[in-house]
């Protein structure tokens, strides 16, 4: 396997997502990117929870930061008796899991980290080291799985394709673009800016540009018109959650673009490391609603008067009949066949 | 007829759109609204053309500012021989018409003003006074026509409706809301912010709020999700241009919302003072593309790096099969029946 890091832009390199440094969690500040390459150092679980809530990190970042926060909690509990340490880790897990009510992969990963800690404690070994050892190996596999998904994604892209995405579709999507480009496919990427946080404009567009692939930023109201002009052939996004019956939950706007894509015959593919066996259907989805004040500003500038009401659902839901495929490490799956592949015991969440 | 002005918010009151003041054109600066209530004073045709191009005014504003600019040009030409004055007015007309390639109502109105000036010159009367007299009477009728359209719009709104709009749908839409509200219909309005200029957040939301009607600002990627939640029952916009075969050209994003509305069974209505008899079909539409740099900023703040490419089509096109009705002063018309009503000689553009 070739060196995966070389296919990734700055933001997605392993050390730049978040890292564990001398008992502290160091998190790349994605709110400031690409204008600054800044990192936030967290020395308490609460600080990590807040950087996740405040969108300092997003996408795949919160999971990494949160597991390191558990390791930090274990270290800080020091020589406490196992029962007390377990209670501390459980509280930390609950605080961290509550930062992202919609994306259940964070909760699932934290539960696995707790199991790892628990096993270590039973064996009389230090929980911090056990969490870190397990997680570094998990991260190794994460990049290998993302690369496998990236190869499936690249296989769906044809020479000359215009590729639409939304928000910041993370490692597997960037691998797809990188592999397709390396294979000589001349592609062009369109990134809606993704209000209110502008992840498309700030994270995706500079990352694609960094890979040397042509990219254009558009505003979130433009995808349908570009499709009507014949500029877009494929639509790829990440997924914050995929239910076992094939509903794709992702950043607000994903579904709206899917409706436009469906009208124009453009297929929609969602990357998912693992559909959630604990989420059977649409009714089991909790869509996070964030502070409406965030809709009234853009990079700190007011966009309307403070007294005007606003509404901010952070995610939307695309039903399975509009999903052309869910790209997992097992291949490009039908949204109607996920229970068969992921309905059993959890592995590798 | 009741006093129409009382049904209108600050931005749409006759004196606040643009006015002719001692030989100068005074234009409300909609770029600064609602944070400032500022006016720009223009003493040359070129200055008026630039405030239109720079989006100081938009929607119905450019037509008003441009006709006053013609009156100003006639005044400044003073005692010039009729042929020289005609040439001056023709040059002014061409410069002003070029500011808005998509919205042909501006061009059509300027041509009528030229005819009025021409008739005056033939009769040996001053062109400035003739243009102003004709235009004040035109504006009287404009508000009466908008009120008639507003009553048709209000008739489509039911008690309890959630109403989606896009950009700033101007006088007829605000009349619709005002009349429906006065009739006791409890409605709620949703205004997508409308990037990149934020007309929805800055102009529509404060104007609806000023009328005392509940309104929520959302980002442009949210309408489809709100529809899936059952929050929206009607979708109304203005139209920069309606072709005789029923294509609706309006601010970018209008079409994307229509596709979402169609999926959810929400009807789409466009207000149009007059479909253009000179625009038979989609092929006759010119969609203005603006400076991509405008997509890379939001109220002066950068949203991505300067070296990232961007794309800015300012309008989109909704085909007639997705238009539930075109609201004109003649009623709520089928998009397939416009040629019957507007295909003949121009009146009242």
Task: Give a structural overview.
2 copies of one chain form a homodimer. In chain A, helix 3 runs antiparallel to helix 4 and helix 6 packs across helix 7. Chain A contains 11 helices and 16 strands. Helix content of chain A is 41%, strand content 16%. Chain A has 2 domains: 2-142, translation initiation factor eif-2b, domain 1 (Four Helix Bundle (Hemerythrin (Met), subunit A), Up-down Bundle); 146-342, Translation initiation factor eif-2b, domain 2 (Rossmann fold). Chain A has helices at residues 14-17, 45-53, 61-77, 82-97, 104-122, 127-156, 170-182, 199-210, 223-228, 254-264, 338-342; strands at residues 18-21, 24-28, 39-42, 162-164, 188-192, 215-218, 234-237, 241-242, 248-251, 268-271, 297-298, 301-302, 309-310, 315-318, 325-328, 331-333. Chain A has 349 residues and is an alpha/beta fold. In chain A, a hairpin with a 2-residue loop joins strand 15 (325-328) and strand 16 (331-333). At the A-B interface, helix 8, strand 6, helix 9, helix 10 and strand 12 of A face helix 8, strand 6, helix 9, helix 10 and strand 12 of B.
In short:
Chain A has helices at 14-17, 45-53, 61-77, 82-97, 104-122, 127-156, 170-182, 199-210, 223-228, 254-264, 338-342; strands spanning 18-21, 24-28, 39-42, 162-164, 188-192, 215-218, 234-237, 241-242, 248-251, 268-271, 297-298, 301-302, 309-310, 315-318, 325-328, 331-333.
Number of domains of chain A: 2
Q: Do you know the CATH topology of the largest domain in chain A?
A: Rossmann fold
Helix content of chain A: 40-55%
Radius of gyration of chain A: 20 Å
Secondary-structure element pattern of chain A, one letter each: HEEEHHHHHEHEHEHEEEHEEEEEEEH
On the 0 to 100 scale, the average pLDDT of chain A is 95
Q: By CATH's scheme, which homologous superfamily of the largest domain in chain A applies?
A: Translation initiation factor eif-2b, domain 2
CATH class term of the largest domain in chain A: Alpha Beta
**Coarse morphology of chain A:** globular
Task: Please state the second-level CATH architecture of the largest domain in chain A.
Answer: 3-Layer(aba) Sandwich
Structural class of chain A: alpha/beta
The pair of chains with the biggest contact is:
A-B, 57 and 59 residues
Oligomer: homodimer
Distance between the termini of chain A: 23 Å
Strand proportion of chain A, as a percent range, falls in 15-25%
| Sheet with the most strands: spatial strand order of chain A | 6-5-4-7-10-15-16
Low-confidence stretches of chain A: none
Number of distinct helices of chain A: 11
Major sheet size, sense and barrel closure of chain A: 7 strands, mixed
Query: Total number of β-strand segments of chain A?
Result: 16
